[in-house]
Design a protein that fits this description.
Strand content: 15-25%
Strand order of the largest sheet: 13-14-12-15-16-11-17
Number of strands: 23
Helix content: 25-40%
Oligomer: single chain
Structural class: alpha/beta
Distance between the termini: 39 Å
């Protein structure tokens, strides 16, 4: 008999277990039983989730279908060295009959199978999707014959070969394949779905009853089936209703498992020692507040009170500050950092790009004035110093900044990934601020916090201008407390947004260029944004879930280089244009941005390098070319670069997609609201869970098979409450640890430990 924790090589043998480990990172019985089917057969046809039209080139797919047509052809003759004769190989193309979109499979060197695959053969095929002349095709796929008019059981791998790895016979497996519902697993050319299913069946045949990991009262209260029934039914259920009950239970499993990892992480931090920074009435915070040229909003006051209180405690603050573009997060972070400096600590502000880091340094120095000029003529008596460290600085410049940081002269240290280098040593790091935190991996954030004195965990404030949906806040950032700024500072002007469907209304784009000229003549400035730099740059495609049919329509996206040339000799001739993109050197970027801020450039033609942090109040118009190539949140971020001054602003989203396409509707939704929180929810529905949970942050994706961040807020909230309750009574609860294992084992535990 077997239990969930058993290694697979003891249950199904070394060969099969080795293949599962190599190709799918499956090592234990629990891993295999939680490697859920991606879909199920429906009668004779297995479709992808949704419709066949959603399949993309290169996707590995399995079909169960009937051959309705065959075609045979000659391949190029080849000389057989063994027989010393010319061979005349054949190819065979079969057409499957149950799909609304025609599907073919082509086999090469197929002489041996031509007579054995006649029309009327029921067959299972697995391979990679390709397209030709509108038809979907599989090239030389693996296959199994399930029923044949000629009575021959053949295939790339016979049922008897599959059965040899298990206790089942070939006939038993054939009976399984002929059921109305049959599980189809994520597979590849090295290990097909039928191989995986054979392993699952063998494990289920010897599996001991599974102990219930959740409290029995919770299972009864939510009318869930047992863990044992769910893990069996999801693989072998006879009916769709049984499968639905299993999926309902396993959805709760995923929610509880993920929340348990986060709850454990958060409670462990209660014992960490943080740098206490009591508030002072005579320090930099008071001086800065007194010299502000504007009044803080009510929301800023409330958030500052919470942060200030947490900074006085000996437990490290772990807080996320989210707010609309332009809601005033920066001044909140500056006042928080000044409270730390008043107590004798240093602060590090980590920014994702050099442009943003330089912008922060410039704006914070301007805010502080004499308070940020320690050691300089005109500096206040209690002043601190703001240091900037980026990768493009010269060796001498870096050395000078590192000396300021190591000596403690610099109270606020702003930088990019250069701050993470071992050569950077802080005198007394007490707080880390991460701007646009989704751009950073958790390892990077952790490396910066580790530069504090031994035994001290710095306070952490992460900021995002992309509002976080409730479910994402509970999962991805479940160990962080959240503060939200919804109120925009007084004086901000509204932004009008419209969509230009260039193929249907080309005159509208000409009007957009004319509007830019009008704004420039009135003394204002504009942005024109493109999705890629030049022909060597891959087209942006932020919407991974967009259908293939949407992606393939329209001409290729305009590059920023060709767009600049076109505008210079066309509609914006005579207007001072500047170019900005990610391949420019830091000096070139700084020079261009300085000229734009100074009004020496009227229109900045750029890529998304200006997405965050760029603040030019005189810019009032933005045209985003090929806007369908950008994600919803990205468009909202870009739009936030205008509307920052005293004049009303206009954002135009230009696209070659049809108005009634999925992309067209998405752009109209963005244009129809400035509510970033509403757009964040829409963005979540558009994206896959993997995009949201983040591969780049952990080195390994946290995979949710059934739990939807867009749809299951109530389940996630319920799971959170359960985990908090169980932790209070038993922090080492074994059942919760089992459910949490997929999210906390091996390198996934590093993700949660370093979040």
């Amino acid at each position: 008999m077997a239990s969930l924790g058993d290694r697979l090589d003891f249950v199904i043998g070394k060969k099969a277990a080795g293949s599962l480990a190599e190709h799918f990172d499956i090592h234990t019985v629990n891993d295999l039983l939680r490697y859920f089917p991606r879909k199920y057969s429906d009668g004779m046809t297995v479709r992808a989730e949704g419709e066949d039209l959603d399949l993309e080139k290169g996707e590995h797919v399995t079909f169960i279908d009937v051959i309705t047509d065959t075609k045979i052809g000659d391949m190029k003759p080849v000389f057989d060295k063994k027989s010393k004769r010319m061979r005349h190989p054949k190819w065979l193309r079969v057409t499957l009959g149950e799909h609304r979109r025609r599907v073919t499979a082509t086999f090469f060197n197929a002489g041996w199978m031509i007579d054995k695959l006649p029309t009327g053969t029921r067959i299972m095929l697995s391979g990679e999707v390709d397209f030709f002349n509108g038809a979907m095709q599989l090239s030389h796929p693996d296959f199994l014959v399930l029923a044949s008019p000629v009575g021959k059981e053949i295939g790339t791998k016979s049922l008897k070969t599959i059965a040899s790895a298990s206790t089942a016979s070939g006939d038993d497996l054939l009976a399984e394949f002929e059921r109305e519902f049959f599980p189809i697993y994520p597979a590849n050319s090295k290990m097909q779905t039928w191989d995986i299913y054979a392993c699952v069946r063998q494990v289920l045949a010897v599996l001991d009853p599974i102990t219930e990991p959740m409290p029995n009262w919770f299972v009864r209260e939510h009318d869930l089936i047992s863990e044992d029934k769910a893990l069996r039914a999801v693989h072998v259920a006879e009916t769709q209703a049984q499968r639905a009950r299993a999926i309902e239970r396993l959805t709760f499993d995923e929610a509880v498992g993920l929340q348990w990892g986060l709850v454990v992480r958060r409670h462990r931090e209660l014992s960490d020692s943080g740098p206490a920074a009591p508030r002072r009435d005579d320090g930099l915070v008071a001086a800065m507040t007194a010299q502000l040229p504007f009044e803080l909003t009510q929301g800023q006051h409330e958030v500052l009170d919470v942060i200030s209180s947490e900074l006085t405690a000996t437990r490290p603050m772990n807080r996320m500050l989210q707010g609309e573009v332009g809601s005033g997060k920066t001044i909140v972070s500056v006042l928080a950092m000044l409270q730390m400096i008043d107590a004798g600590h240093q602060c590090a502000l980590l920014a994702p790009t050099e442009v943003l880091a330089a912008q922060h340094a410039q704006s914070i120095r301007a805010m502080l004035g004499p308070l940020g000029m320690a050691g300089q003529l005109g500096g206040a008596d209690n002043a601190t110093r703001v240091a900037l460290l980026t990768g493009s600085m010269s060796v001498q410049q870096k050395r000078e900044v590192r000396d300021e940081v190591a000596s403690g002269e610099a109270g606020i240290v702003i930088g990019t990934h250069a701050l993470l280098q071992e050569a950077v040593e802080f005198h007394r790091l007490g707080m880390v601020v991460v701007d646009e935190q989704h751009r950073f991996g958790v390892d990077q954030r952790d490396r910066l916090r580790a530069k504090a004195p031994d035994g001290v965990v710095p306070h952490l404030l992460v900021m995002t201008a992309t509002p976080i949906p409730r479910t994402v806040a509970l999962t991805v950032y479940g160990d962080l407390e959240t503060s939200t700024l919804r109120e925009l500072p007084r004086g901000r002007q509204p932004i009008t947004s419209n969509t230009i469907f260039m193929l249907q209304k080309p005159a509208w784009l000409e009007r957009a260029w004319a509007r830019i000229v009008e704004e420039v003549r009135a003394g204002r400035q504009a942005y024109v944004v493109a999705s890629r730099i030049d022909e060597n740059d891959k087209p942006a495609s932020a919407q991974k879930s967009t259908k293939k049919s949407d992606k393939e329509q329209g001409p290729p996206p305009t590059t920023v280089v060709e767009l600049l040339a076109r505008l210079q000799r066309g509609p914006l001739a005579g207007v001072r244009l500047g170019l900005m993109h990610g391949r420019l050197s830091s000096e070139e970027k700084d020079s261009v941005m300085a000229a734009f801020r100074a009004g020496e450039i009227d229109v900045l033609v750029c890529t998304t390098v200006i997405e965050v942090g760029v603040d030019v109040p005189n810019a009032t118009v933005m045209v985003v070319m090929d806007a369908d190539r950008f994600g919803i949140s990205q468009l909202h971020q870009l739009r936030g670069r205008i509307g920052r001054g005293e004049h009303p602003s206009l954002c135009l989203l230009a696209t070659n997609m049809p108005e009634d396409s999925k992309a067209g509707k998405r752009l109209k939704a963005v244009a129809g609201t400035q509510d970033g929180f509403l757009l964040a929810d829409l963005d979540l529905r558009e994206r896959s869970e993997g995009d949201v949970l983040g591969l780049h942050q952990s080195g390994r994706p946290i995979t949710l098979r059934f739990l939807s961040l867009a749809e299951h807020y109530d389940i996630i909230r319920t799971a959170r409450d359960l985990c908090e309750s169980v932790y209070e009574s038993d922090p080492l609860d074994a059942g919760m640890a089992v459910l949490s294992a997929p999210f906390t084992d091996t390198d996934r535990v590093q993700f949660l430990e370093k979040s």
